[in-house]
Amino acid sequence: MKSVLVTGANGQFGKSIEKIAVNYPQLNFVFATSSELDITSIESIEKKLFNESFSYLINCAAYTDVENSEKEPEKAYKVNADGVKNLALICKKQHTVLIHVSTDYVFDGEKGAPYLVTDVTNPINVYGASKLKGEQHIEYLMDSYFIVRTSWLYSEFGKNFYKTIFQKAKEGANLSVIDDQIGSPTHAGNLAEYILNLIIDQSKSYGIHHFTDGEILSWYGFAEKILKENGLADKVQLEKAKNYRTFARRPKYSVLEKHI
Ligand SMILES: NC(=O)C1=CN([C@@H]2O[C@H](COP(=O)(O)OP(=O)(O)OC[C@H]3O[C@@H](n4cnc5c(N)ncnc54)[C@H](OP(=O)(O)O)[C@@H]3O)[C@@H](O)[C@H]2O)C=CC1
Ligand SMILES: Cc1cn([C@H]2C[C@H](O)[C@@H](COP(=O)(O)OP(=O)(O)O[C@H]3O[C@@H](C)C(=O)[C@@H](O)[C@H]3O)O2)c(=O)[nH]c1=O
């Protein structure tokens, strides 16, 4: 039976994997939260991997606060770059395949068409730059890895745009959402299935993958969809934001092309 270690297990994506893990009885999962395994500490990782060896490590650990990354870049780099380097070094030593999740924010959004896995990266915010650095450590250090870039994740778990809009709408707040950033919302459960199937299929298509749900929307369009899905469209007012102020710049068009 293949054993799979999941790091960052308490986050949105870690919990999404845990939810569907029961459908994969042929895999033996170990879920490690940030307090059980801190990816920024070599000792912490080695402690977890001392007695047990894993065929795969799915890294869900990350610093995902896009806004705060601008104010405290060292926090983003510590986890998203240095922490990922630690995982790459140890996985290589232990012959564990690393499956790492990355982001559409590694691109600048200026292409105006869906990004291919071969397209040049050029992040325009600290979060994206720190995630790219993590990717580069893996590519430099390892041969057997998957870097799966995805975008605009949402689910019942953790903090995400879907839940924020739904919550605000339920409270009856009027919503103002930008329509000049375009991307592909992706259900975290679908990404979890994609990744677990790479394992089940014993895929050797190592390298960078793009996975999204395929629909192309603005954040405004996504908000509209969320309201409709929950029967709230007639109950709250949704307007296109003119000046929604943020610290971080975000790519204008960060759709990921799934097919090579
Ligand atoms: N959310 C999104 O829209 C998107 C996310 N991604 C990528 O997907 C992955 C999963 O994201 P998501 O689940 O949404 O993010 P979350 O922020 O929900 O989860 C991240 C998890 O990482 C944990 N963590 C933080 N620092 C460490 C550390 N040093 N050691 C171990 N664990 C740590 C956090 O722990 P704690 O619970 O203690 O805070 C948290 O549980 C990330 O790599 C992210 O960059 C890619 C595209 C879109
Ligand atoms: C909540 C809200 C956001 N917005 C804007 C702000 C921002 O430009 C955009 C998205 O808002 P958020 O801050 O929720 O999204 P953001 O944190 O930028 O989401 C990103 O997270 C990281 C982790 C990723 O990897 C990306 O793929 C992407 O999902 O929508 C509004 O215009 N109105 C609103 O009411």
TrEMBL record:
Gene3D superfamilies: NAD(P)-binding Rossmann-like Domain (3.40.50.720), UDP-galactose 4-epimerase, domain 1 (3.90.25.10)
Organism of provenance: Zobellia barbeyronii
SUPFAM superfamilies, per database record: NAD(P)-binding Rossmann-fold domains
InterPro entries assigned to the protein according to its UniProt record, in alphabetical order: dTDP_dehydrorham_reduct, NAD(P)-bd_dom_sf, RmlD-like-bd
Catalytic class of the enzyme: oxidoreductase
Protein name in UniProt: dTDP-4-dehydrorhamnose reductase
Reaction it catalyzes: dTDP-beta-L-rhamnose + NADP(+) = dTDP-4-dehydro-beta-L-rhamnose + NADPH + H(+)
Biological classification of the source: Bacteria, Pseudomonadati, Bacteroidota, Flavobacteriia, Flavobacteriales
Domain RmlD-like substrate binding: 3-257
E.C. number: 1.1.1.133
Superkingdom to which the source organism belongs: Bacteria
UniProt function note: Catalyzes the reduction of dTDP-6-deoxy-L-lyxo-4-hexulose to yield dTDP-L-rhamnose.
Family according to the record: Belongs to the dTDP-4-dehydrorhamnose reductase family.
MF annotations from Gene Ontology: dTDP-4-dehydrorhamnose reductase activity
Record pathway: Carbohydrate biosynthesis; dTDP-L-rhamnose biosynthesis
Pfam families linked: RmlD_sub_bind
Keywords associated with the record: NADP, Oxidoreductase
